[in-house]
Amino acid sequence: INSPSSMYGHTLVRMDREDQSSSKLLAYSVNFAANADPTDNELVFSYKGLSGGYPGEVSVMPYYVKTNQYQHMEYRDTWEYELDFGSAEVDQFVRHVWELQDTAFDYFFFDENCSYRLLTMLDAASSRSDLAADFKMKAVPVDTIRALYSAGFVSREVYRPSAASVMESNAALASEEEADLARTLVESDIPIGDLLAGVPEESQTRVLELAYSYARYLSVKKKQANPVLRKRTLQILSARSKLPAGDVFPAPRKPEFRDDEGHGTARLSVGGGYTGEQWHGDINWRIAYHDVLDPSKGFSPGAQIEMGDFYTRVTEDGDVRLQRLTLVNVLSLSHKTRFQNPVAWTVSAGLDRFNHEGSELYSRFNLGFGRAWQLPLGLRDGKRLGSARLFALGDLTARADNQFDDGYQISAGVRAGWLWQGRLNQEMIQFRWQPAALGDDTPRRELTVEEAFNGFDNVQLRFGFSRQWASSEATNSWKLTYAWYF
């Protein structure tokens, strides 16, 4: 979620060798991606990717190059889906790949992206396949996998955990003393032999394995060569080589649900409520993709990515109006672990209205940074039934409209809350307080309580309450919605 180019995921095709005993990492992979300017910053990259500012190109490279990038450089888990294509179809696919090399295509992040282009290549390889025809507006990678399942092309799946997943799995199995010692081995300049003196051999092995994973994580995080860290890493590897070979940690547990087993990426919801002193009906259509109150099966806990969210309201007086439009809304509530200390952050932009009667649409941009903490709740017999976390963010919001003094308001404050994501329900309680303001000195506060109950076959019932204060005046809003995911 922290990479704008890949927060929705990425798709490629691997061409396995005829000898099934050969290493999969030595196979070739077929990839389609935007040929981006490496000097562009993330804001420019996002704009050009959305607007077709980059050419898209097909490339062929060894699979280990991509897995190294995904699993060790970007810390992304990989799911491999074996496709049931015959030898003639595979040959035709290879011929098509060769004729597409060095050909530039339009690249658009939402529709003509990696997933869509690879589907067209599979369509060209097999008369049984016409998958791309169903992707006219958007092509989210997970949806293209579902299309392959529906067409009967997937024969089995393989989970390949990232280096970060391996590190976190091993850290969870190590004792607190072993984890602390592993950090010390990397961060201290004390000789490794002195630090490990008196530690049992099996424990030494676990500590050194963890220390090496942590050193690699720091190297990737800093994105630059560090001679001190490199020297320390070699010392850790040298110490590990003197101990018995073999795995001291089991492989990370395969996730209970694959990404493609989650809810549909589009959502349509209808409902109604009572705001101020008026009843209203609501229709909401979201193009993509997931918010923290959606069913959490198959999604990363604490992660939210929404784009193209249209919220229409019919008031008691019969007026029909756009209540809210979300262009982008990203929330990352990644929590601190023994070896990682990520920043929780959010960014959103769009149009909105306040709860009070007569409020006009205003433009809004919000940015926040802070911390999130996972709580030891939702565990039963060693299995996680849900994820509970607290979060606190510094909150900055810019609003623009003639309803504000000077036509704008830039306000700052805090945003704090509680989030529960379980199998049967999701819950979020948050409070926002923005006392500091420019352009319009009205201090604003908001309390929201939302509860969602998951149904069957991609449906959900959601209840929400919010209370907004502008200075000392407050307006309440209640709503009940029923959602379909498709």
Question: How would you explain this protein's 3D organization?
Answer:
With 486 residues, the chain is α+β, with helices and mostly antiparallel strands. It has three domains: 148 residues, no CATH class; 67 residues, no CATH class; 223 residues, Beta Barrel (Porin). It is 25% helix and 39% strand. The chain has ten helices and 20 strands. The chain has a twelve-stranded antiparallel beta barrel. It has a four-stranded antiparallel β-sheet with strand order 1-2-3-5. A two-stranded antiparallel ribbon has the order 4-6. The longest helix has 22 residues. The protein is globular. The protein starts with 12 loop residues before the first strand and ends with a strand. The mean pLDDT is 91.
Strand order of the largest sheet: 7-8-9-10-11-12-15-16-17-18-19-20
Shape descriptor reads globular
Give the mean pLDDT. 91
How many β-strand runs?
A: 20
The main β sheet shows up as: 12 strands, antiparallel, barrel
**Approximately what portion of the residues adopt beta-strand conformation?**
35-45%
The helix/strand class is: alpha+beta
Using brief descriptors, characterize the structure shown.
single chain, 3 domains, 10 helices, Porin, 486 residues
In short:
The chain is an alpha+beta fold and 486 residues long. The chain has helices spanning 42-51, 63-73, 87-100, 114-125, 141-150, 163-173, 176-187, 192-196, 201-222, 227-241, and strands at residues 13-15, 28-34, 55-62, 78-83, 104-106, 154-160, 267-275, 278-290, 303-315, 320-332, 344-352, 362-375, 379-380, 383-384, 386-400, 408-422, 425-438, 444-454, 459-470, 473-485. It has 3 domains: 13-160, no CATH class; 175-241, no CATH class; 263-485, Porin, CATH 2.40.160.
